[in-house]
Design goal:
Length: about 210
Protein backbone atom coordinates (compact mmCIF):
# COMPACT_ATOMS: atom_id res chain seq x y z
CA UNK A 1 0.00 0.00 0.00
CA UNK A 2 2.76 2.42 0.85
CA UNK A 3 4.37 1.65 -2.45
CA UNK A 4 1.22 2.64 -4.34
CA UNK A 5 1.09 5.97 -2.51
CA UNK A 6 4.67 6.63 -3.41
CA UNK A 7 4.00 5.88 -7.07
CA UNK A 8 1.02 8.29 -7.04
CA UNK A 9 3.12 11.01 -5.56
CA UNK A 10 5.78 10.46 -8.11
CA UNK A 11 3.25 10.70 -10.94
CA UNK A 12 1.84 13.99 -9.65
CA UNK A 13 5.29 15.48 -9.45
CA UNK A 14 6.09 14.82 -13.11
CA UNK A 15 2.87 16.36 -14.70
CA UNK A 16 3.33 19.55 -16.88
CA UNK A 17 1.57 22.77 -15.74
CA UNK A 18 -1.58 23.62 -17.87
CA UNK A 19 -2.52 27.28 -18.69
CA UNK A 20 -6.27 27.84 -18.39
CA UNK A 21 -7.80 31.18 -19.55
CA UNK A 22 -11.23 32.36 -18.70
CA UNK A 23 -13.59 34.13 -21.19
CA UNK A 24 -12.50 37.71 -20.38
CA UNK A 25 -8.82 36.91 -20.84
CA UNK A 26 -9.52 35.22 -24.18
CA UNK A 27 -11.46 38.27 -25.46
CA UNK A 28 -8.67 40.59 -24.36
CA UNK A 29 -6.07 38.51 -26.19
CA UNK A 30 -8.12 38.49 -29.40
CA UNK A 31 -8.70 42.28 -29.22
CA UNK A 32 -5.02 42.92 -28.68
CA UNK A 33 -4.16 40.79 -31.69
CA UNK A 34 -6.65 42.65 -33.90
CA UNK A 35 -5.32 46.05 -32.78
CA UNK A 36 -1.77 45.00 -33.60
CA UNK A 37 -2.79 43.81 -37.07
CA UNK A 38 -4.69 47.05 -37.78
CA UNK A 39 -1.72 49.14 -36.65
CA UNK A 40 0.57 47.20 -38.97
CA UNK A 41 -1.88 47.66 -41.89
CA UNK A 42 -2.25 51.42 -41.33
CA UNK A 43 1.49 51.89 -41.04
CA UNK A 44 2.07 50.02 -44.31
CA UNK A 45 -0.66 52.02 -46.05
CA UNK A 46 0.83 55.41 -45.11
CA UNK A 47 4.32 54.25 -46.02
CA UNK A 48 3.03 53.30 -49.48
CA UNK A 49 1.22 56.63 -49.85
CA UNK A 50 4.36 58.53 -48.94
CA UNK A 51 6.32 56.65 -51.58
CA UNK A 52 3.68 57.44 -54.22
CA UNK A 53 3.66 61.12 -53.19
CA UNK A 54 7.43 61.32 -53.43
CA UNK A 55 7.27 59.79 -56.91
CA UNK A 56 4.59 62.29 -57.98
CA UNK A 57 6.61 65.26 -56.72
CA UNK A 58 9.65 63.97 -58.58
CA UNK A 59 7.68 63.64 -61.83
CA UNK A 60 6.26 67.16 -61.44
CA UNK A 61 9.74 68.60 -60.91
CA UNK A 62 11.02 66.83 -64.00
CA UNK A 63 8.05 68.03 -66.06
CA UNK A 64 8.48 71.60 -64.81
CA UNK A 65 12.13 71.49 -65.80
CA UNK A 66 11.18 70.20 -69.25
CA UNK A 67 8.62 72.99 -69.65
CA UNK A 68 11.14 75.64 -68.69
CA UNK A 69 13.64 74.18 -71.14
CA UNK A 70 11.03 74.12 -73.94
CA UNK A 71 10.05 77.72 -73.19
CA UNK A 72 13.68 78.81 -73.32
CA UNK A 73 14.19 77.06 -76.66
CA UNK A 74 11.03 78.64 -78.03
CA UNK A 75 12.12 82.11 -76.97
CA UNK A 76 15.55 81.47 -78.49
CA UNK A 77 14.25 80.26 -81.86
CA UNK A 78 10.89 82.04 -81.84
CA UNK A 79 11.73 84.18 -84.89
CA UNK A 80 11.94 81.06 -87.07
CA UNK A 81 8.26 80.24 -86.42
CA UNK A 82 6.76 83.65 -87.26
CA UNK A 83 5.68 82.73 -90.85
CA UNK A 84 3.99 79.59 -89.56
CA UNK A 85 2.17 81.60 -86.88
CA UNK A 86 1.03 84.07 -89.57
CA UNK A 87 -0.38 81.22 -91.66
CA UNK A 88 -2.21 79.82 -88.65
CA UNK A 89 -3.66 83.28 -87.95
CA UNK A 90 -4.91 83.53 -91.54
CA UNK A 91 -6.49 80.09 -91.28
CA UNK A 92 -8.27 81.16 -88.10
CA UNK A 93 -9.53 84.39 -89.72
CA UNK A 94 -11.02 82.63 -92.74
CA UNK A 95 -13.42 80.42 -90.72
CA UNK A 96 -14.41 83.51 -88.72
CA UNK A 97 -15.26 85.36 -91.94
CA UNK A 98 -17.27 82.38 -93.14
CA UNK A 99 -19.14 82.32 -89.86
CA UNK A 100 -19.94 86.04 -90.26
CA UNK A 101 -21.32 85.40 -93.75
CA UNK A 102 -23.48 82.56 -92.43
CA UNK A 103 -24.83 84.80 -89.67
CA UNK A 104 -25.62 87.51 -92.24
CA UNK A 105 -27.49 85.03 -94.44
CA UNK A 106 -29.41 83.72 -91.44
CA UNK A 107 -30.35 87.29 -90.49
CA UNK A 108 -31.69 87.94 -94.01
CA UNK A 109 -33.66 84.70 -93.88
CA UNK A 110 -35.17 85.64 -90.52
CA UNK A 111 -36.21 89.06 -91.89
CA UNK A 112 -37.83 87.42 -94.92
CA UNK A 113 -39.69 84.94 -92.71
CA UNK A 114 -40.84 87.76 -90.45
CA UNK A 115 -42.16 89.72 -93.43
CA UNK A 116 -43.93 86.64 -94.73
CA UNK A 117 -45.47 86.05 -91.32
CA UNK A 118 -46.67 89.69 -91.11
CA UNK A 119 -47.98 89.79 -94.69
CA UNK A 120 -51.59 90.93 -95.01
CA UNK A 121 -53.98 91.23 -97.95
CA UNK A 122 -56.65 93.73 -98.96
CA UNK A 123 -58.73 94.17 -102.11
CA UNK A 124 -59.28 97.18 -104.31
CA UNK A 125 -62.91 96.57 -105.20
CA UNK A 126 -63.57 99.36 -107.67
CA UNK A 127 -62.22 102.59 -109.10
CA UNK A 128 -64.35 105.72 -109.67
CA UNK A 129 -63.81 109.11 -111.26
CA UNK A 130 -65.99 110.84 -108.65
CA UNK A 131 -66.08 110.62 -104.88
CA UNK A 132 -69.88 110.44 -104.91
CA UNK A 133 -69.93 107.23 -106.94
CA UNK A 134 -67.36 105.64 -104.62
CA UNK A 135 -69.37 106.60 -101.52
CA UNK A 136 -72.53 105.07 -102.99
CA UNK A 137 -70.79 101.68 -103.25
CA UNK A 138 -69.46 102.05 -99.71
CA UNK A 139 -72.98 102.74 -98.37
CA UNK A 140 -74.42 99.68 -100.12
CA UNK A 141 -71.71 97.44 -98.71
CA UNK A 142 -72.07 98.98 -95.24
CA UNK A 143 -75.74 97.97 -95.20
CA UNK A 144 -74.58 94.37 -95.72
CA UNK A 145 -72.15 94.63 -92.81
CA UNK A 146 -69.03 94.99 -94.98
CA UNK A 147 -66.66 97.74 -93.89
CA UNK A 148 -64.62 99.48 -96.59
CA UNK A 149 -62.34 102.49 -96.93
CA UNK A 150 -62.25 105.28 -99.47
CA UNK A 151 -58.85 106.23 -100.89
CA UNK A 152 -58.25 109.31 -103.02
CA UNK A 153 -55.47 109.11 -105.58
CA UNK A 154 -54.01 111.83 -107.79
CA UNK A 155 -52.12 111.33 -111.01
CA UNK A 156 -50.74 113.60 -113.72
CA UNK A 157 -52.87 114.03 -116.84
CA UNK A 158 -53.83 116.41 -119.59
CA UNK A 159 -56.96 118.35 -120.36
CA UNK A 160 -58.77 117.98 -123.68
CA UNK A 161 -56.87 121.05 -124.80
CA UNK A 162 -53.58 119.32 -124.02
CA UNK A 163 -52.57 121.35 -120.98
CA UNK A 164 -51.03 119.45 -118.01
CA UNK A 165 -53.34 118.90 -115.09
CA UNK A 166 -53.85 116.67 -112.04
CA UNK A 167 -56.51 114.01 -112.27
CA UNK A 168 -58.15 112.76 -109.07
CA UNK A 169 -59.76 109.31 -108.81
CA UNK A 170 -61.12 107.23 -105.95
CA UNK A 171 -60.89 103.57 -104.95
CA UNK A 172 -62.98 101.52 -102.52
CA UNK A 173 -60.86 99.05 -100.57
CA UNK A 174 -61.61 96.30 -98.08
CA UNK A 175 -59.88 96.07 -94.73
CA UNK A 176 -56.80 93.84 -94.53
CA UNK A 177 -56.81 90.08 -93.98
CA UNK A 178 -54.08 87.78 -92.69
CA UNK A 179 -55.39 84.89 -94.80
CA UNK A 180 -55.77 85.37 -98.53
CA UNK A 181 -58.53 82.74 -98.82
CA UNK A 182 -60.71 84.71 -96.37
CA UNK A 183 -60.38 87.81 -98.55
CA UNK A 184 -61.24 85.83 -101.68
CA UNK A 185 -64.35 84.49 -99.98
CA UNK A 186 -65.45 88.06 -99.13
CA UNK A 187 -64.88 89.18 -102.71
CA UNK A 188 -66.98 86.30 -104.01
CA UNK A 189 -69.86 87.23 -101.69
CA UNK A 190 -69.71 90.89 -102.78
CA UNK A 191 -69.71 89.97 -106.47
CA UNK A 192 -72.97 88.09 -105.99
CA UNK A 193 -74.81 91.43 -105.56
CA UNK A 194 -72.42 94.01 -107.01
CA UNK A 195 -71.28 94.25 -110.61
CA UNK A 196 -67.57 94.71 -110.10
CA UNK A 197 -65.59 94.93 -113.32
CA UNK A 198 -62.14 94.46 -111.78
CA UNK A 199 -60.91 93.55 -108.33
CA UNK A 200 -57.24 93.61 -107.36
CA UNK A 201 -55.78 91.79 -104.38
CA UNK A 202 -52.86 93.75 -102.89
CA UNK A 203 -50.38 92.82 -100.16
CA UNK A 204 -48.98 95.28 -97.66
CA UNK A 205 -45.36 94.58 -98.70
CA UNK A 206 -45.62 93.54 -102.34
CA UNK A 207 -46.82 94.70 -105.73
CA UNK A 208 -50.55 94.39 -106.52
CA UNK A 209 -51.52 90.83 -107.36
CA UNK A 210 -53.61 89.83 -110.32
CA UNK A 211 -57.17 91.02 -109.99
CA UNK A 212 -60.27 88.90 -109.83
CA UNK A 213 -62.27 89.91 -112.84
CA UNK A 214 -66.01 89.88 -112.70
Amino acid sequence: MNNLKDIGCMCNCHQQPVLILDRKETAFAVSLTVIVLITIFIGGYFIGKKAALDSFVKDMNEQSFADRLHHSMTMLYGTDHQPEATEQLAENIQPSASAAQINQEESKLNVAQSQLHNERYYAQLARFNTQKSAQQLMHRLQKKGIETTLVKRVSAGRSPEGTPMQVAWFTVNTHSFAQKNELEALISSIKMTESLKKVRIITNNAQPMKGMSS
